[in-house]
Design brief:
10 strands; TIM Barrel; globular; homotetramer; alpha/beta; 388 residues; two-stranded antiparallel sheet
């Protein structure tokens, strides 16, 4: 019972940030399959995010992507979010969709392109100021496709320079979250390909620069929970971009490909009390829903994070520590597996009822009529997508 | 000297098929960077392919992709190709870019969609008849993104049914080439994910169904030359889609990522005399040139195949066989490496001069003025891309 | 309730074969850590296997490895097994631990070595005759370490020849199960590296040759349940070597690395009623317990297979089929996940009580005193290991 | 010509360290195939290393592994090396072959085991003092096999503590080289799994702690030359353990699996002038020759490093820099490939003749009679292996 209460408390405190672009159309290089009811502007994206929050009670913030979410008046956008019951989360800079960025943005050999890219990063901080966002999230598509195409080392110098200028512009209560990614869109080298690179730059920059772990951005065989544990120990874990993948990339709902891995990640988090909002770890979804309906997929993803967190909180920490200290390999593993094998859905249903929520947010969404509303009302105009 | 002559002869006989879509714009899911001078219709694509053939003497055929290369009169298109000195190669069916295909084409749970997809395959055979093409190349984007989304097994039944109907429509001198691919665009399961699946279906279909190896479509650690050797032994290797990749996909110039691998593949080919055109192996490029100029990249790719073939033909087969039989591990490996380490570029330059070609086709292209011509003339209209 | 009964019935019918060598010492190339109480001969291994069966009611057969389990009188060994309540399962041939096999066994360039290796395979059939075993399980360590070391293709010819001779010697009620493995101990090429190779040879051999899937022997990103579904459809799935691995090899308890994957595999099995013993699929454990106590690890592994099977049997097949047919991606996935997320341990505990077993076999083993007995009695002599 | 002279100079300055254990028997977990003539003690290993140096002029140092190379009098061993014309290189600590280390060495949950392990590290520094070695090379087999087995984070604390104590004992002219490894022998988590972890600890320790890159210890898809470039830029690259692998581990001759990768690595080295011995990068071989004769395999490996270095030195750096600055993707790649495609063997043969060496060290070894001598003389006693 004690553990169940702890699990409920752990989950109740956890806010999962949803991404504005996940409500918009997306696809692969082969095809984007448009869906009915998709938002046509940032306001409508926020409306959808608010629906997710109302149903789950667990998605209080929504991340923006600039320029996909470019508006004339960011203060008004933030106000709209507040009116809807949510807040603006991280501002995601986008320096990969202009023709200028063909050979890179902040690492481009051309100083003019670098200037343009860095200016965009600075502009994103302006938007943070206007929206109250505290996190600047940086992912760079920069890299090269062919050996020799550019100097790997010189690109690091350029990257460091742009990061330093941007970091210098941050307000005292603002952070820089630096993401890494093994590959794609660059095929040969990526300028921030792994956590080590991100960590090294963040260390150089200062306290308010931290690493973001995108769960789908690792080489096969990478132990992601090791990275979580290492960065927590070093005080350099800024947050997650949650999603899952079977092989190559990061487009599936978090927990869909390997729920045990998500549990292991949350076990590291809970073991370090890093689910406590006071610790400032950002738990963000960064997924695309190419063939499945977007809003219920996002609700399902929030629930998946909650379920993994609840299971992690159910781990009998004392028994685990004792078995570990005793070198009882099977006992320690068994203690962890006991928690994973527990069905936490009833517990979370109760928790939701305590919060005045529907115990089954997915079913509640189906009944809510929201989909029928947006399908019928959002006609005309242009559906939002990655390019808009 | 004897080996050098053999190498020249091997290379001289080898025709590399270029792909119409490689001359068009392409990119990643993040961005397509358009290039100046890109063709605006299939006729202009063929013009570019003809330039590659004139400069290399080694690219006599060009593959089409339907509907990307849809025209009113395929006989006229084939005649245009002949006028330009090239022929139509494989017809590539495309059943992945209609909204209907969101959940699959020939494996879709909806029989109406399956019918539509199979009809497209049959239509491609009509185009073969009209253009004189002998090869129907099939790649299916079909698969699922989430466990449970569809029955893996039922999809195989549907696939088998569509393939059988299509195979039955082939003329006596026409072939079906069935490609496989580990992943993408489907994230969880792919309906033809590996050579075993393609092989099993081809075996079921009959003699004129053969496997295509796309060099970029394998899991990490896969020994591709093993597959080449196995399929040659079984009489089921139909051809290659050449390209290269460092991690995930298949967009780089063949030989760019791992020239030693390409050499090992060609060593299996040459060891089995399968470079002899009489054996009917199709050597096709299937690459995209997202950031590099397209025509010179394609010329470079043709040269890479030629260089790997020449090196393979330089292997001292008798010495290799003896060392293998003697269990002389280092001697056998050394014999292979001797050929790989040889610089065959002078030999190929001589061969080209003997053929009345420029010894350096890339430089010849730069001097030819073709790029300036197409850049200036191909203005207005819409550049061809994957979607057109 | 109906589903729960189906789940119990599915699990009750399932026998998991344990491996004699799993009770013996094992390790990595770096070090074997010996454990107290390890068997010193095949009789003691069978004693341990019998303990696992008595506690789980689910491990009625034990596989042998020849020559690790060489005895003078196999009939006596089989009788001993019967006395202990178990039977001899598959006979595993071992043609990789003689100095002669440095460059291969049945694919060795030296015909004398091939003869010796094939003779060993035939001898294993003699042992099948003597013990009543129905399955000859073949795994070949054969392959090469360096490109060029041997002819990939010639090795296939030699393999086919040895398999044909061996197959010809099988009795009418005996099978050949051909395993495949991506890599190791060969570093460059493996002679049976993937399911396609095994399948092609089995097809050539005849009905009583079938493929064995070792769950730990695949390249990263391989969808194993696809292979299960494909082979079931083709009538060529002979069985499993169960184990799990995070990156490279296959030494962990089945279900330990990715319990969701094991569930998906058993979902394919249950969907095809292939858990029904009448279908003849062999469910075998092939694991090594290098640092954890062996017998409880094997019990845990049996339970893991049972839990995955129970969850698979809980899948609402009608709802799943409907969602799949309707193209309801989230609904279909959700139906599968509902079963996976269910805690089946109480259900299985009940089932065991119905069978007159302890509901918790691991705890029952701890209480049984067996470990203390073998620790004290099995002193002197030489502990069994991979080499003996 | 200028470039050729530069290439010769670059290669002439490069010393490749060979490993004492590479001269001894080794194998996989399945089997060690012993070879005739293998050394029986550290003195004989040094004799073989001296042969490699005499023939190549490029292998002046030999690394030791403690306790595999334990002797009573290390000063005498160092003197023996000097007499043979070589020096003692890095001292490699071995804390993975005692029964105590089953659950780890310096990260073991048991403080007594940690003490023992750290004491061994300190003892290795004593041996450095006695032999004149400047480099302490640390590789830890430490990790866990099962999730939950131990606290990932606590193990980092323990690791940091042991490293700090050891670092504190180093002399002013001694270094600590910290290796990382993705997996094996631990199957689930490894305590130093990637360069980021090693880098972070080295940063914490101080200037004389540096990262060692073992080329065979990376996840699929990892860009190793990126790591080289990054660590050079950060002043934290201590050296290499050279070898190559196709899939899983690290036992093949360097350059055997992917010669282009080795070239790209050496291109980063040469671009930073890091081949200059004054920069202190250690170029070490860490390979095992399981089926091929050891001494010629080691000679071949030294030549492979020389050839890659020569090719790297032939890169037209000015043309490359210009093409990179101009964004000329194909031009830049072509400049790199021109160097790679050059056959540098004649150039290196000339260089050797200039040095008074045989132009073909492998052939010279075959003719030298050394193998026949050791085969005949090294009889009786016990051949050295990984365990001795």
């Amino acid at each position: 019972m004690r553990h169940e209460d702890a699990a409920k408390a752990a989950v109740r405190g956890l806010g999962v940030e949803t991404a504005s672009w996940a409500y918009a159309n997306s696809g692969t290089r082969f095809k984007v399959f448009p869906q009915p009811g998709v938002p046509r502007d940032p306001y409508e994206k926020i409306d959808d995010a608010a629906v997710v929050h109302r149903l789950t009670g667990a998605a209080p913030t929504v991340a923006l992507h600039i320029p996909w979410d470019e508006v004339d008046d960011y203060t008004a956008l933030a106000a709209h979010a507040r009116d809807q019951g949510v807040r603006i989360g991280a501002i995601n800079a986008n320096v990969f969709q202009d023709d200028d960025y063909k050979l890179g943005s902040v690492t481009n050999p051309d100083p003019g392109v670098r200037r343009k890219a860095t200016d965009h990063l600075l502009e994103c901080i302006d938007i943070m100021d206007a929206t109250g966002s505290k996190d600047l999230k940086l992912w760079f598509a920069d890299g090269t496709n062919y050996p020799g195409q550019d100097s790997i080392r010189a690109r690091q110098d350029r990257l460091a320079e742009a990061l330093a200028e941007t970091y210098g512009r941050l307000g005292a209560d603002q952070r820089m979250l630096l993401e890494y990614k093994l590959f794609e869109p660059a095929f040969y080298s990526t300028d921030v390909p792994d956590w080590g690179t991100s960590y090294a730059h963040c260390l150089q920059l200062g306290e308010r620069a931290q690493v973001v772990i995108d769960t789908g951005h690792h080489a096969p065989g990478t132990n992601i929970e090791f990275i979580v544990a290492f960065l927590l120990r070093a005080g350099k874990l800024g947050g997650f971009d949650f999603n899952s993948r079977f092989y190559a990339d990061d487009d599936l709902m978090v927990g869909a490909a390997d729920p045990f891995q998500l549990f292991r990640i949350m076990h590291e988090i809970v073991s370090a009390d890093a689910h406590d909002p006071a610790q400032g770890i950002a738990f963000m979804l960064d997924q695309c829903h190419n063939i499945e309906p977007k809003i219920p997929a996002i609700i399902r993803s929030v629930l998946n994070v909650q379920e993994a967190t609840a299971k992690a909180a159910l781990v009998d920490a004392d028994a685990l520590a004792k078995a570990q200290q005793d070198g009882d390999v099977l006992g320690a593993n068994g203690t962890l597996m006991d928690a994973f094998n527990t069905d936490v859905r009833p517990l979370l249903a109760t928790m939701r009822e305590d919060q005045g929520l529907d115990p089954d947010p997915v079913a509640a969404y189906e009944r809510s009529g929201h989909f029928e509303t947006i399908r019928d009302q959002r006609v005309g105009g242009e559906q939002a997508g990655w390019g808009a």
